[in-house]
Specification:
Number of strands: 12
Strand order of the largest sheet: 2-1-6-7
Shape: globular
Largest sheet: 4 strands, antiparallel
Structural class: mainly beta
Distance between the termini: 25 Å
Strand content: over 45%
Number of domains: 1
Order of helices and strands: EEEEEEEEEEEHE
Oligomer: single chain
Length: 117
């Protein structure tokens, strides 16, 4: 699910990504437009996954929770994209070179079998 935002939204109850029509942080509600209707989703039922500044060799944007594979078939490395807050800002667990040499194989929400033990 590619979008123009710096994040994507996972509905923790319906177990799907969706696009927000708008977000009211003061009221704690995300407004989802689905099948022509607007649905109110409480903020405590969603996860925001932020977009990294990196893209894969195919040009796919990488978000938190995406799983990438790099290397040859015999020596492939699979890892989940994540970020950490450190002074003075956010750091990602991959580099631009890692991302450019990788392919996107899924994400840990839609493909829980890709989670590392």
């Amino acid at each position: 699910m590619e979008n123009n935002n710096d994040y994507r939204i996972w509905h923790t109850i319906l177990r799907k990504y969706f696009t927000a029509e708008s977000i009211d942080f003061q009221s704690g509600i995300v407004f989802e437009k689905s099948r022509g209707a607007i649905h109110n989703v409480p903020l405590n039922r969603v996860l925001f996954e932020y977009k990294s500044p990196f893209k894969t060799k195919s040009g796919n944007s990488l978000y938190e929770g995406d799983v990438i594979k790099s290397g040859c078939d015999e020596c492939s490395i699979t890892q989940s994209v994540s970020r950490e807050f450190r002074d003075p800002g956010v750091t990602w667990n991959i580099s631009e070179d890692d991302a450019l040499a990788s392919e996107l194989i899924g994400n840990i929400r839609e493909n829980p079998e890709l989670r590392r033990g």
